[in-house]
Design goal:
The protein is mainly α and 241 residues long. It has one domain (2-178). It is 61% helix and 0% strand. The chain contains 10 helices and no strands. α1 (2-23) crosses α3, α1 packs parallel to α7 and α4 (80-104) runs antiparallel to α6. The chain is globular, with a radius of gyration of 18 Å.
């Protein structure tokens, strides 16, 4: 439990600091990786406080406690394909649960809960953690559900913790670095609708996709597969001509 909590917390702050203090402070990298098309007036972001960090870590610790004590542990051995398959299913299921929760937070009845997170149209990685307690609970339930459905293997859980933090922090950075293609989540913040999921699969299914306006990137795993498929189709058509 301590390992899971530490990996999640350390990766969250490490990736966030890497993006904000490393990549964004380099003019060449920032300009190259910037996904935003629509100009947004810069906003001051809330500074870290000892109280905020402690409260955040308490919430993260309690969530780790709930997952590891209540969710079923599953040992899937060393079969690479089996583990990869379960991991991808976990990503798709997590995207669905988050999509439903996030879309509900944009409904008329729950919107006020979500407004704290949307105080910022300009974006910083750490806006990912700027949310009300009630929203944190709702999103945490959505995140926990796939773990209860599929069970957890501690190695996969640690990997998902790091990848999930990378998704979340990058998605709020307005940069295209690791997984998020272009301005997928950035468009959600600037337009306040569409792109409710983590990676866009369920936005495509339920027709809530706000199409990205810049480079495709590799939104793991969906957009990468789409990108390869589209390029393959174009190449085949070119060869036929």
């Amino acid at each position: 439990m301590l390992l899971y909590w530490l990996v999640g917390s350390i990766s969250f702050y490490s990736i966030g600091i890497l993006i904000e203090k490393g990549i964004k402070s380099n003019d060449i990298l920032r300009d190259k990786l910037t996904a935003r098309i629509k100009k947004i007036k810069n906003q001051p972001f809330p500074s870290f406080s000892l109280k905020g960090i402690i409260i955040g870590e308490i919430k993260a610790f309690l969530l780790a406690l709930i997952i590891l004590y209540l969710a079923p542990e599953v040992h899937r051995g060393n079969n690479l394909l089996l583990n990869l398959g379960w991991f991808l299913m976990r990503i798709v299921a997590a995207d669905f649960c988050f999509y439903v929760a996030h879309r509900l937070l944009h409904t008329r009845f729950l919107q006020k809960i979500h407004l704290k997170h949307h105080e910022f149209r300009d974006s910083s990685s750490f806006v990912a953690g700027h949310k009300s307690l009630l929203e944190y609970i709702i999103v945490a339930i959505a995140d926990v559900l796939p773990i209860f459905i599929f069970g957890y293997d501690i190695t996969q859980l640690l990997a998902w913790s790091v990848i999930g933090n990378a998704y979340n922090l990058e998605g709020h950075s307005s940069l295209s670095i690791f997984f998020i293609p272009s301005d997928f989540h950035d468009l959600h913040h600037t337009c306040f609708n569409g792109n409710y999921g983590i990676q866009g699969l369920w936005d495509r299914v339920f027709n809530t996709l706000n199409p990205v306006t810049k480079k495709q990137g590799i939104m793991f795993p969906v957009s990468f597969i789409e990108h390869v498929t589209i390029n393959s189709s174009i190449n085949n058509d070119t060869e036929k001509m």
